[in-house]
Amino acid sequence: MARIVMKFGGTSMAGIERIRSVAARVKREVAAGNQVAVVVSAMAGETDRLVGFCREASPLYDAREYDVVVSAGEQITSGLLAIALQAIDVPARSFLGWQLPICTDTAFAKARIDTIDTATLEESFAAGAVAVIPGFQGVAPGQRITTLGRGGSDTSAVAVAAAIRADRCDIYTDVDGVYTTDPRIVPRARKLAKVTYEEMLELASVGAKVLQTRSVGLAMKEKVRVQVLSSFTDADAPMADTLPGTMIVGEEEIEEVERQLITGIAHDKNEAKITLTRVPDQPGTVASIFEPLAAANINVDMIIQNIAHQSASNGASSTSATDVTFTVPAADLARSIEALNQAREAIGFGELIHDTRVAKISVVGVGMRSHAGVASTMFTTLGARGINIQAISTSEIKVSVLIHEDETELAVRVLHTAYGLDAEAA
Ligand code: ADP
Ligand code: ASP
Ligand code: MG
Domain 265-418 is classified in which CATH homologous superfamily? Predict the structure, then answer.
């Protein structure tokens, strides 16, 4: 007998037929003698719809009320799956985030899980029932509902798996594993049998949305065995413990011969670029820009400060001035602009220019630690296609560039070929 967490994403839960097929898959694991907790997402498109309502109601919505609205999608699917399981004679019950409870901090809209009370889940296992848990939601001190950031059901699943010491956390989605890049963009992407926690963490953080970044960080920390697999294989497909999905593993579990220089390429269209022109080129300026953003809980990603030129806009005739460009999550753009405008006097910038038509393209691989030339291959390849690079950032195992959004697919495709990642033509 194994204890497993099965997580089903939005496409897998999109409609009653799909939910029935999920129920059948859960039943198979139960019939095999396993203890099962299921974590579910909202139906595909539902969270976007709910987010849209909030934005329509007010672009500067209260994040606490946003969480009340957007957590609703998972409430519906958890109840529906419990009904579908009961209908095929599998004892099941839903437990909402506040009922367990799944306790989080108060960072509304991107809360972190602090603790999960497992007593109720243990009772459920002891009674031979399946616990259905809505992903993405929790409850903060003060009894207010929180959500964990977009894609957060993955994190709920890993956190539940860690809390109940599950043998496995199976993430069922609409692709059958983690690929060298988004298989919807590059049909010649290759499925990876294994990927290290570290690389998956980096890939996720730069936009490979197949797993939420925090879920990978948590899995790494808590040593949860995470497997990514498809919920769209037919009912006679092998059981999950023998399915050829992608296993997230420690670096020591990957053989030397399996190692590639580049593991994957990711893209992210959810960033917005902000440029502040003519800020004084003097100590403290950059801090005066990023402090109000940090205070508003907005994460700044790529940053470039241009070479100093003419004089600053704040009338300080002796100081030279510079432009500072950086990216923030597109969802935080309105709040970023507001925070910067409020701090305008302290910063002393000329104009605030913003652009959401940008995409970040990243290549990731632990192999680049010991190999030079990864970045130059990237720049040469993009340059040869006339793709202009607007910003660059790097880490030990990643190089990212910011380009025009319209060039995303071309950039990902040519880089995939340039790093030798294309699958053999079928
Ligand atoms: P779910 O609703 O199941 O959580 P998501 O839409 O969040 O599913 O994540 C699955 C999607 O991630 C796939 O449909 C695919 O388009 C995308 N994706 C991006 N990068 C990758 C990658 N490297 N490997 C696999 N899928 C990827
Ligand atoms: N439904 C939420 C979202 O769309 C959480 C998830 O699906 O993981 O972001
Ligand atoms: Mg997801």
Answer: VC0802-like (3.30.2130.10)
Ligand 1 centroid from CA 208, angstroms = 7
The residue whose CA has the least distance to atom 5 of ligand 2 is 151
Return the residue matching tokens 């003097």.
Answer: 282
DSSP β-bridge partners for residue 113: 104
The model's confidence at residue 96, banded by pLDDT at 50, 70 and 90, is very high
Contact between residue 349 and residue 339 where contact means Cβ atoms under 8 Å apart: no
Asked whether 135 lines ligand 1 (CB < 6 A), one says no
Cα 181 to averaged position of ligand 3 atoms, centre (Å)? 15
C-beta 48 within 6 A of ligand 1: no
Tokens of 232: 């769209």
DSSP 135: T
Place of tokens 């790093």: 419
Q: Is 199 in the pocket of ligand 1 (CB under 6 A)?
A: no
User: 243 pLDDT exceeds 80?
Assistant: no
Answer whether 97 contacts ligand 1 (Cβ < 6 A).
no
Q: Is the CB of 178 under 6 A from ligand 1?
A: yes
**pTM for this prediction:** 0.91
109-143 residue pLDDT tens: 999 999 999 999 999 999 999 999 999 999 999 99
- Rounded distance, CA 371 to CA 367, Å? 6
Buried/exposed code over 91-117 (b: 16+ C-beta within 10 A; e: otherwise): ebbbbbbbebbbbbeeebbbbbbeebe
Q: Measure 29 CA to ligand 3 centroid, in angstroms.
A: 22
What is the CATH number that goes with domain 3-252? 3.40.1160.10
Whether ligand 1 lies within 6 angstroms of the CB of 365 is answered as no
The residue whose two tokens read 């009674």 is 127
Task: Tell me the residue length of the chain.
Answer: 426
Domain boundaries, the chain: 3-252, 265-418
Q: How far is the CA of 261 from the centre of ligand 1 (A)?
A: 22
Q: Which of 43, 173, 413, 419 to mutate to test the pocket of ligand 1 (most atoms within 8 A of CB)?
A: 173
Q: What is the pLDDT of residue 327?
A: 97
Q: List pLDDT tens digits, range 311-367.
A: 555 555 556 899 999 999 998 999 999 999 999 999 999 999 999 999 999 999 988
